[in-house]
């Protein structure tokens, strides 16, 4: 076992340095930043469009005292729900003819309010009247009460924490962690598919297979890609954290997960490692059968679809706690890391995570072994029908 | 399986090895035993099963039938640290520096990287390649890349070196260097097992050989024993073309270009000589030639195998 690990580390070291100290790795690190930067750019553009005031404008053609009453009512309402849901008011001369006002292109109003507060009349297109009718009725009713209108005082009973509120917050944290782990796994694990192509095209595989067990080659490659992923994640999370501080400020508060932040972060790292190595060992086994980059590219699509299905299953399970789906997602090895990180956000018990990590590690070992047997049989043309999954790594 | 063989005399042993790829039986019951400290050649045309046999012995692939031991272990990879292997299809990571590639190959077989790097530079320096130590493999010539791979095979100072077609693709100068290197390793007590389709290399280097054709061993023994499979050939020319002495010529005698050709009789040349002298044949010349390994190979493996070997040799020379 020590020999296997030693050999795996030799392979891992070679792969890690070959990738990390290459020019292409800079693009790898910067690649995920591009969508974020594009997102921010388009987001800014979108928010500018959204901030353009498109609310309808009501030309208030009422006597001065009534128009002032409408404005006071408007201000009273705008204090709580905010002005955004309300149409804007623009006072115009009380004797204005509504139709004439609306006929002028520079009038700047959508509909005209005339009549009185008791009998308000709206002139405008039917759909514009539909949009503002209720608001005008509310404002008029409020304006009629005049100074008699008062907000009902509320008595405050403060508590330190709200389980109900925290539960919602934890659910959000769990889902966010699920999503982040999924995105990182999808982004990074696919690269493992093409990992053995270099060795096969450069005829190095025979040198490796003659010196170390194929299990060590597979394990080493997985470890190298995992380490490389952690370098990327460290880079991206540093950037993301800086962005968070920039956007939300240093006092940004996230609801604490049930197991606490330190344990949650450790579990998140472990579950990412498990999700990555589970998928990675499967991809390595499949990719090991491919002999060209073209074949690997052909395999990428169904593999990505498979990943999405697993994620949807884990998400579905998180939305239906306590049922068969939750248990199934925790037991099914590929969805288990996602299901368990959601559970870590919502339940404080740690022992299920030890069990889950052990279970997932067992599947990693099984998948590597199966991949090795496939590789030996179909690529090295070795191993007869009697070879068993658990037979020792002979050579 | 005990994991250990009880016979330390042999560095490599294979018994009843069989390997089938689909319907093709590449190796068909091979028995082989390489004495410790020997230079042992596996001789045969392309497709004879040499590479598959070596791969099975090294544990790269498992035999369908039979068993093998390498340096006493029936799990060849457990003794990988004491074995150096140069495959027929050379392979190195193109983006690796030459010295690093050598150290990496040593590290695969348990040599600490730092020692490997130091040894790699020393080896390259000793062979006039110091300038190439920090060059990437893709920047090296084909010959240099092959030499780098050979150094990677030796860097961890193995007890057993297995070379699959080591001379293929090398020019005459580099072939000579490689032969010298093989002899130097053998002097240090290292066992050398190599496959080749070039009879001259086996004849010059090997103490023992195995001739493989059609997935079977047709001969196993010393080069001398192989050559002894054929009777020495006698060439006789006489001044007189006929006489009573002709009755003393062996039954397989043929006349060719004014000379008599026949195999050396079992009882030796003396009775014939006596008859020639008594019959006043007038001996002009008499030569007794021991057959070469090529003749022995033709006799053992067949003319078709010999022609396949000759074809592969000329292709290999063109490559170099």
From TrEMBL, chain A:
UniProt membrane topology term: Multi-pass membrane protein
GO molecular function term, any single one: ABC-type transporter activity
Membrane-spanning ranges: 24-45, 179-197, 203-223, 230-249, 261-286, 298-318, 350-372
Gene Ontology cellular-component terms listed: membrane
InterPro entries (UniProt xref): ABC2_TM
Top-level division of the source organism's lineage: Bacteria
Compartments where found: Membrane
Keywords attached to this entry: Membrane, Transmembrane, Transmembrane helix
Main localisation: membrane
Keyword Transmembrane annotated: yes
Domain ABC-2 type transporter transmembrane: 176-367
The name this protein goes by in its record: ABC-2 type transport system permease protein
Organism for this UniProt entry: Sphingobium fontiphilum
Organismal lineage: Bacteria, Pseudomonadati, Pseudomonadota, Alphaproteobacteria, Sphingomonadales
Automatic annotation (TrEMBL), chain B:
Superkingdom of origin: Bacteria
Record protein name field: ABC-2 type transport system ATP-binding protein
Domain ABC transporter, residue spans: 12-239
Gene3D superfamilies recorded: P-loop containing nucleotide triphosphate hydrolases (3.40.50.300)
Keywords assigned: ATP-binding, Nodulation, Nucleotide-binding, Transport
The species this protein was found in: Sphingobium fontiphilum
Membership in a protein family: Belongs to the ABC transporter superfamily.
Classification lineage: Bacteria, Pseudomonadati, Pseudomonadota, Alphaproteobacteria, Sphingomonadales
A GO molecular function held by the record: ATP binding
InterPro entries, alphabetized: AAA+_ATPase (IPR003593), ABC_transporter-like_ATP-bd (IPR003439), ABC_transporter_ATP-binding (IPR050763), P-loop_NTPase (IPR027417)
């Amino acid at each position: 076992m020590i020999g296997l690990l030693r050999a795996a580390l030799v392979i891992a070291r070679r792969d890690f340095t070959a990738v990390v100290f290459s020019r292409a790795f800079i693009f790898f690190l910067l690649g995920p930043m591009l969508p974020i930067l594009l997102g921010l750019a388009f987001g800014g553009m979108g928010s500018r469009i959204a901030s353009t005031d498109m609310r309808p404008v009501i030309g208030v053609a009422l006597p001065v005292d009534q128009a002032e009453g409408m404005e006071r009512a408007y201000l009273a309402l705008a204090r709580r729900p905010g002005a955004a849901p309300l149409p804007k008011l623009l006072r115009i001369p009380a004797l204005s003819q509504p139709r004439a006002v609306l006929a002028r292109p520079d009038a700047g109003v959508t509909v005209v309010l005339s009549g009185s507060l008791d009998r308000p009349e709206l002139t405008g297109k039917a759909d514009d009247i539909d949009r503002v009718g209720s608001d005008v009725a509310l404002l008029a009713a409020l304006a009629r009460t005049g100074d008699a209108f008062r907000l009902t005082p509320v008595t405050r009973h403060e508590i330190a924490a709200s389980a109900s509120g925290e539960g919602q917050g934890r659910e959000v944290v769990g889902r966010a962690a699920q999503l982040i782990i999924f995105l990182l796994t999808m982004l990074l694990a696919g690269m493992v598919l093409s990992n053995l192509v270099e060795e096969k095209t450069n005829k190095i595989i025979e040198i490796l297979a003659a010196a170390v067990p194929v299990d060590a080659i597979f394990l080493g490659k997985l470890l190298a890609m995992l380490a490389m992923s952690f370098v990327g994640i460290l880079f991206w999370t540093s950037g993301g954290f800086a962005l968070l501080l920039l956007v939300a400020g240093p006092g940004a508060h996230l609801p604490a997960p049930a197991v606490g932040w330190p344990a949650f972060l450790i579990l998140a790292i472990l579950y990412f490692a498990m999700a990555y190595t589970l998928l990675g060992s499967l991809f390595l086994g499949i990719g090991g059968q491919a002999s060209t980059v073209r074949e690997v590219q052909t395999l990428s699509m169904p593999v990505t679809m498979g990943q999405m299905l697993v994620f949807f299953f884990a998400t579905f399970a998180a939305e239906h706690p306590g049922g068969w789906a939750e248990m199934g997602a925790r037991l099914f090895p590929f969805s288990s890391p996602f299901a368990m990180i959601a559970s870590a956000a919502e339940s404080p018990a740690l022992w299920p995570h030890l069990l889950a990590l052990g279970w997932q590690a067992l599947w990693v070992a099984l998948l590597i072994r199966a991949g090795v047997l496939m590789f030996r049989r179909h690529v090295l043309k070795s191993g007869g029908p009697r070879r068993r999954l658990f037979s020792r790594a002979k050579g | 399986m005990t994991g250990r063989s009880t016979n330390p005399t042999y560095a490599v042993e294979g018994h009843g090895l069989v390997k089938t790829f689909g319907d093709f039986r590449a190796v068909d019951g091979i028995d082989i035993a390489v004495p410790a400290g020997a230079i042992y050649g596996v001789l045969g045309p392309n497709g004879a099963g040499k590479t598959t046999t070596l791969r099975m012995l090294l544990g790269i692939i498992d035999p369908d039938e039979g068993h093998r031991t390498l340096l006493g272990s029936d799990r060849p990879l457990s003794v990988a640290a004491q074995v150096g292997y140069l495959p027929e299809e050379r392979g190195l990571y193109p983006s690796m520096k030459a010295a690093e590639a050598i150290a990496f190959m040593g590290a695969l077989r348990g040599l600490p990287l730092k020692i490997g790097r130091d040894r790699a530079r020393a080896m390259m320096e000793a062979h006039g390649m110091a300038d190439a130590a920090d060059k990437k493999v893709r920047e090296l010539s084909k010959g240099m890349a092959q030499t780098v791979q050979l150094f990677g095979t030796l860097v961890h100072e193995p007890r057993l070196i297995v070379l699959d077609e080591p001379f293929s693709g090398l020019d005459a100068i580099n072939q000579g260097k490689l032969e010298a290197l093989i002899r130097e390793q053998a002097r240090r007590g290292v066992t050398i097992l190599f496959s080749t389709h070039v009879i001259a290399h086996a004849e010059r280097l090997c103490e023992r050989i195995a001739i493989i054709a059609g997935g079977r061993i047709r001969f196993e023994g010393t080069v001398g024993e192989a050559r002894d499979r054929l009777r020495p050939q006698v060439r006789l020319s006489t001044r007189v073309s006929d006489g009573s002495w002709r009755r003393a010529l062996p039954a397989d005698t043929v006349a060719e270009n004014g000379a008599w050709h026949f195999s050396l009789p079992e009882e030796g040349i003396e009775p014939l000589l006596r008859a020639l002298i008594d019959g006043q044949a007038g001996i002009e010349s008499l030569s007794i030639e021991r057959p070469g390994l090529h003749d022995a190979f033709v006799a053992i493996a067949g003319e078709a195998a010999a022609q396949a070997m000759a074809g592969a040799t000329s292709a290999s020379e063109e490559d170099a």
